Amino acid sequence: MTIRAATRKDLDTAVRELIYRSCLRLDEGDFPGWLELCAPDLRYTITAYSPEIRQEMTWLDHDRDGMEGLFKMLPKHNSDHSPLTRHASVYLVEVDEERGEAAAVTSVVVYRTALDGGATDLFAVGKYFDNINLEGETPLLAGRNVRLDTRELGIGSHFPL
C-alpha cells in the first residue's frame, strides 16, 4: 500500500512505527539503519530551556550530512559507551494528507546501563517533536527536535537521543 492510498488509521500506525523503529535503531547503535528512516532534508536538534540562565539552549543542530558526520566521528570521541535504552510513548499524531506530512509528539525516557557493574540509571527525560514526510512509499523522519527536561547529561554524551 502506498501512503497516498492509506487510510487515516494506517497513516497513524505507520508514523508510530517509524518513531518506535527509530528508537530501536538508536538503541542498537545502528546509525546507518537510523539514517535509512530519515528524509534527505532531515533536521535534527536537541534543545532545552534553562531557568538558571532564562534562555533556550541548543545542544545539537544538524542536517542529514551533519548527522552522518557525527556518526562517523563517534568512535573517535572520548565518550561513555554505556548502552542507552529509549522508552517512547507516542502521545499525538496529526496527519496533513494534503501537504503529505505528519507531526508527532512523543514522550521519551532514556536509561543508561553502566558497562562496569550493569547498574541502570535514568539518563534523560524529554519529548520528541517530529515532522514526518509522507510523500514516498514509507514515512520518513524529516525533522526531530529532542526537547529535554534534563539539562545535565555529563561528560562524553555525544550520542543522539
In words, what does this structure look like?
It is a single chain. This protein is α+β, with helices and mostly antiparallel strands and 161 residues long. It has a single domain, classed as Nuclear Transport Factor 2, Chain: A, CATH 3.10.450.50. It has three helices and six strands. The chain has helices at 8-27, 31-36, 64-73; strands at 38-50, 55-63, 84-96, 101-113, 120-133, 140-148. A six-stranded mixed sheet has the order 2-1-6-5-4-3. The relative contact order is 0.23. Keywords: Oxidoreductase. Belongs to the bacterial ring-hydroxylating dioxygenase beta subunit family. It holds the Pfam family Ring_hydroxyl_B.
Question: Secondary structure elements and their pairing?
Answer:
Layout: H1 8-27, H2 31-36, E1 38-50, E2 55-63, H3 64-73, E3 84-96, E4 101-113, E5 120-133, E6 140-148
Parallel strand pairs: 1-6
Antiparallel strand pairs: 1-2, 3-4, 4-5, 5-6
Short characterization:
By secondary structure, this protein is α+β, with helices and mostly antiparallel strands. The chain has one domain: Roll (Nuclear Transport Factor 2, Chain: A).
